[in-house]
Structures are given as C-alpha cells and as structure tokens.
Design goal:
It contains 16 helices and eleven strands. It is α/β, with parallel strands linked by helices. It folds into two domains: 2-162 and 333-344, Glycogen Phosphorylase B (Rossmann fold), CATH 3.40.50; 176-331, Rossmann fold (3-Layer(aba) Sandwich), CATH 3.40.50.2000. The strands form two sheets. It has a six-stranded parallel β-sheet with strand order 2-1-3-4-5-6, with helices on both faces. It has a five-stranded parallel β-sheet with strand order 8-7-9-10-11, with helices on both faces. The protein is globular and about 60 Å long.
C-alpha cells in the first residue's frame, strides 16, 4: 500500500496532523510521500476566506491567484503520477478545489481520496464545495456531521483529533531555565479572541501565561488575558514544556470550530501528563470519563471554582492527569486514527 499525504498547513513547523500521520506511517513501514498544497498556493487569503467577491480582487491579483492554484495543482498531480498511491489523505485541504480532485481521478482512477477536516467546513467555501468529490470526508464534530448529513452528504464520518505520544509525553530532562520560563499556576496555548478573553477574565487574580501569537478581534488593552500574553508561539518541545510545567492547563474551545467537538489540545495535554480544565462540550463524553479522567467546566464561574479547587490539590491533579494520559494512549493517538481511516476505506 502507498499513501500520499496532502498536507494542509500554512506553517513550516512540523507539528500539524499531516506531519504526525507521516511519522506514524514511517513507524509502520508504509510507503508514502507528503506535499503541502496550501503552501504552494502561497497562503492566499482568497483560499481561506468565507466570502470574497470578484469585485474585491483586481484583474492582476485574480490572474496571479489562478496561476498559483494551477501551479500547486500541477505539483500535486505530478506527485500522484510519480507515487501512484492507493490512498490520498488530505489534511483539511482548504485550498483543494473540486477540480483538483477530479483531475487526480482522471490521471489515476484507482485512488481512494479522504479528507480529515478538523475545522468547521461550513466556514470555508472551497472545502465545503469539495465534499462530494471525496470518498470519505472526516469531521471531528458530531454537530457538523449531522448538519452535513442534512444537506445530503452521505460520505461524512466522525473522526476526532489525536496525540503523538513520542512528542506529547512527560519530560524527564527539563532544565532549570526551561522551568523558570514555562512554569505557571495557569496556562493556555492558543490564539486570543474576544470569547476566550472574556472566559479568562474570571481568573484575573491568579498567575496566568498565555502562549501563542494570534490575537483576533477587539480586545481591551487592560484585559487580564492580554496582560498575561507571552507574545511567543510554542511548538514541539516548547508546547509540551508548557503542558508539563503548568499546574492547571486551561482548555477553552472556539465556538465556531468546536460546536459539539473537541480541539487537539485535549489529547496533547493528556498525553503529555498535564492536568487540564476543559470546557465542556457534548462530544467530550464520547472520548473521556468526565469527572474521573477529565475535569470539565460549564460556565465561567465554574471555571473559577474548579481552578481554585485543583490548584490547592496537587495529588488529585496528578491522579486525574495520569488517568487522562492512559486514556489518550489507549484510544486517541495518530496510530489509532490511521487505523480507523484504513478500516473505513477497506484497507485493513
């Protein structure tokens, strides 16, 4: 079996799902290759936007965008002809238009093409319009799954995100310098946007570190979250250091991308051995034993109450974190997800 991963990241940092699937395939000894269509398109805002009209694009810009798409598509088609994969795994694929999938099937008709779309496809017009072209379109959110079925998408399936245990793990070689930099009572890794800022405001008298460079929307300059912002992205070991060295990792959800579903941080924190307070969502019950393996809050006041409770109880934190880690390793790794994909398409 040969697999092509059509990576869907705009960053050169190797911590995205496509990269972790690549590492998992290497460990399994499965022949594969990897290419990033998004970067070839040059991360154009037009590729990602929800609604951009022709009037907003000059003729020169439009021709340049068309050429970038064509060149990116040619690179993918060349890779397909070279590898002749049995399976193409598209990761989000926000720039993968229906015509590219059709052209792939023209040059190599025997290939199975799936998409692991771990955002909300209703927000991305290219991805949404491409759904009928895939053999299977995986989503992480049961709300999205059911809404897609309402509009006739019979090829959608549920597939949550995952962790990669060789990276997301308890660290035993933390330096004193790393400990000073990344230790905190409370931490959160992710972009700041008004909803998250409002949620964190209830903790304004506690020590908090916010990691990440994304700041979206109108955020008051005196907000607690902004004052706690480290203005630094964390990836790879740095991110795991945060999870390891934070007493209570906070995990709030983006209401646009996680309606009933979960983000990847729940699995990354758990596998890293960190304790987390997770914002409750309906799909959480599918993944963890809530109250025993994961602690969830349902309101800002409850977030405050639980943070105070568990900051004062290190032993309980450690016990819950260990149970959470065991569940992540038993059921929620990229190896598990790969096996689910292969089984769904009949390759096992």
């Amino acid at each position: 079996m040969k697999i092509l991963i059509l990576r869907g990241t705009t960053r050169e940092v190797n911590n995205d799902p496509g990269w972790y699937f690549h590492l998992t395939l290497e460990e399994k000894g499965i022949e594969h290759d990897i290419i990033c269509h998004d970067i070839l398109v040059n991360n154009s805002i037009f590729a990602k936007g929800i609604n951009y009209t022709v009037r907003s694009v000059s003729r020169r810009q439009g021709l340049g965008l068309i050429n970038r798409y064509r060149n990116a598509d040619r690179a993918v088609l060349s890779k397909v002809k070279q590898l002749r994969p049995d399976l193409i795994m598209v990761m989000n694929g926000k720039t993968v238009r229906p015509i590219l999938i059709q052209e792939i099937r023209t040059v190599y008709s025997n290939v199975v093409i799936v998409n692991c779309f771990w955002d909300n496809p209703f927000l991305y017009h290219i991805a949404f319009s491409s759904i009928p072209e895939y053999d299977i379109f995986f989503v992480k959110d049961t709300f999205v799954l059911n809404e897609l079925k309402k509009v006739g998408a019979e090829n959608v399936r549920y597939l949550p995100e995952a962790c990669y245990p060789k990276e997301h793990r308890p660290l035993d070689d933390i330096t004193e310098e790393e400990c000073q930099k990344y230790s905190s009572e409370l931490s959160i890794v992710g972009s700041l946007y008004p909803y998250r800022v409002s949620m964190l405001e209830i903790l304004r008298d506690r020590q908090l570190k916010v990691w990440g460079t994304g700041i979206w929307g109108v955020i008051p300059e005196n907000s607690y979250a902004l004052r706690s912002h480290q203005h630094e992205s964390v990836d790879g070991r740095q991110k795991v250091l945060v999870f390891n060295l934070t007493k209570v990792n906070l995990n709030t959800l983006n209401p646009l991308n996680c309606i009933h579903g979960l983000n990847d941080r729940i699995y990354h924190i758990a596998a890293s051995g960190g304790f987390q307070l997770m914002e409750y969502n309906l799909d959480l019950e599918k993944q963890y034993d809530v109250g025993r393996e994961i602690i969830a809050f349902r309101s800002r006041d409850e977030l405050r109450e639980l943070a105070e409770y568990y900051l004062a109880r290190p032993r309980e934190r450690a016990e819950i974190a260990e149970r959470s880690r065991r569940r992540a390793l038993q059921e929620h790794t990229f190896d598990h997800r790969l096996n689910e994909i292969l089984e769904t398409v009949g390759f096992t």
